[in-house]
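Hey all, quick one. A colleague (J.T.) asked me to put the iron/sulfur cluster job into the tracker so the inputs and the structure tokens live in one place instead of scattered across chat threads. No bug as far as I know, just bookkeeping. Sequence used:
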Amino acid sequence: MSEPISAEKKVFIHTFGCQMNEYDSAKIRAKLGTDGFTATQDPGDADLILLNTCSIRDKAEQKMHSALGEYRRMKKNGQPVTIGIAGCVAQQEGDALLKRYSDLDLVFGPDGVPHVNQLVREAMDGKRVLDTEFLDLETYPFVTEVETVDDQQVGAFVTIQKGCDNKCTFCIVPTTRGAEASRSSSQIVDEVKALVDQGVVEITLIGQNVNSYGLKTPGEKTFAELLYAVSDVEGVERIRYTTSHPRDMGDDVVQAYRDLPKLSSYLHLPVQSGNNRILRRMKRYYKRERFLEICAALKDARPDLVMTTDFIVGFPGETEEQFEDTMTLLDEVGFIGSYSFKYSPRPGTPALRLKDPLVPNDVAGARLTRLQNRQRELSSAWTRGHEGKVVDVLVEGWSRHDPGVICGRTDTNLMVNFPGDLSLVRKTVPVRVTRGFTHTARGERV
Ligand code: SF4
């Protein structure tokens, strides 16, 4: 085993993709911190550059390759830097990446994060390192190091599981992140406490399918029980979670919306399509009717609950009528926002084996535009509906665009910008909304 790196080194991590990757990057920083690394925002100043990659869509993968080109140029021009690729592309392509890029030092998948220090030491010792083995699920070593949060940080992610046991046919995640394992609830609560001790007030529990948390582990809490346990931690003011799978949304979670005021009145529940045949082809294991039933139960439990979702448009074989079912579902639920994409065939996904014909790109594009236009109308109507009302805003910091203006979110995740200063960060203040836009609102303190 090589020795810890003694002199201070700097690591730059370029993160692509989802919150799981953001979280993994934070854990990598925390773990490397124990070996004397500090994080830098400047790749030109780094001894180690890691690209934490995403393979869910072609675009993210292309962006990764272009960023890698830039970092390799820096190395070629004399910067003494070790370069590594982590995350889902690393898991999927493995050795092919090392073969393709002779100056690449390190490739590791998501299961390499718990022992990243060892991998980095070897790479900095001059070895070319590949680690794409999946770890044993029974003894999966969730990272316990907690990243030091900066003193203005309002919220933090806490992972509750890794991997996914579902087989949604469009998705590469089960291949790149492996099977599901749940982290122990006591470890999760400890991490929440450690974050709250640093001043964090909003906790987002993350996993690929949080609703199935604990189900495979005898004696472990269920996801609903975990929500109650996190809510019991003093100092936690708001709890969010992502991502949910409608199939596993139980009555006990619905009940939590009645019982736990700290549980945010905002839920992201991916539906993907409003048509039963398409849902079946996607292997989502719920029907449109069941999805609507869940939405109704949630809104009954928490009348001010708002929801967002994910849509895939132009899944192989999708007809105009089937797409109409997605359009009507959008209106029936009244989603206040959605992430919507044209289906993109991804290497290694089961959907590639479907016999249904691909939807022509222009047809899928036109459907996506229709869906997004309607979504924009629903989103703006919801946001404008706040005009004149007073809402409670948890302040996050300066607004990105306006000097002298701060921003924060309501319990329903509406971003509100209003004049103020940083002394209000981490506080909840009443704000009158003066103007609603598509996704954000402007207001003034009352
Ligand atoms: S639930 Fe489906 S979409 Fe989500 S990560 Fe698992 S396989 Fe992918």
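Adding what we noticed when we looked at it: The chain has four domains: 9-131, 138-264, 267-384, 390-445. Confidence is low (pLDDT under 50) at residues 1-5.
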